[in-house]
Amino acid sequence: MGFKAGQLFVNLPVNDLQASINFFTALGFEFNLQYTDENATCLIINDNTFAMLLTKEFFKTFVSKEITDTSSHTEVIMAFSASSRAEVDELVHKALAAGGKKYNDPVDHGFMYSWSFQDIDGHLWETMYMEEGTAENA
After folding, report:
1. Taking 90 as the threshold, does the pLDDT of residue 109 lie above it?
2. Predicted confidence band of residue 20 (pLDDT cuts 50, 70, 90)
3. What is the DSSP string of 24-76?
4. Looking at the predicted structure, is the pLDDT value of residue 74 above 60?
5. Between the CA of residue 69 and those of 12, 15, 73, what are the distances in Å?
6. What is the pLDDT of residue 103?
7. Which residues pair with 113 in a beta bridge?
8. Using an 8 Å Cβ cutoff, are 121 and 78 in contact?
9. CA torsion 129→108→10→39, rounded to 10°?
10. Which helix (H) or strand (E) holds 9?
11. Cα torsion for 9, 93, 71, 65, to the nearest 10°?
12. Regarding beta strands 49-55 and 8-14, do their DSSP bridges make them parallel or antiparallel, or are they unpaired?
């Protein structure tokens, strides 16, 4: 059996930490305050997946390469599942109301439904609903 990670921490640079906290709070997400200060916060996606939102200045202390300009380049799409098509729509509508931008139109494959948005820093997020049992058959 191959390696399986226990937890995933995605690190994302943000322009304004408090604005990012406000944005994701409006979507219904919570934060781990143990890992929150003026430089960073820990966005809880689920019990094993987290996004560390880091001010750009702090993010730069971990890398020697340039930070991606999200207004013209894409480095990653964070995709996660929702419990229903309605929950997909609800989350994207919340993101748009909180200052995010629409990235594409909803995509309906019958067994799978998804919709994407950009957060206030231009990072791409996709939420999807997949009918039960289809992931095992893919």
Report:
1. yes
2. very high
3. HHHTT-EEEGGG-SSSEEEEEEETTEEEEEEEHHHHGGG-SSPPP-TTT----
4. yes
5. 12, 11, 6
6. 94
7. 108, 129
8. no
9. -100
10. strand 8-14
11. 0
12. parallel
The token duo for 78 is 């964070």
Q: Count of alpha carbons within 13 Å of 24, Cβ hemisphere only?
A: 22
At a CB cut-off of 8 Å and minimum separation 6, what does 24 contact?
31, 43, 53, 119
| 87 sits in which H/E element | helix 85-97
pTM of the model: 0.89
pLDDT of residue 134: 62
Burial category of 123 from C-beta neighbours within 10 Å (exposed 0-12, middle 13-18, buried 19 and up): buried
Residue 27, φ and ψ in degrees, nearest 5: -85, -10
Buried-exposed string 47-65: b where 16+ CB fall within 10 A, e elsewhere = eeebbbbbbeebbeeeeee
Contact 36/25 with Cβ under 8 angstroms? Answer: no
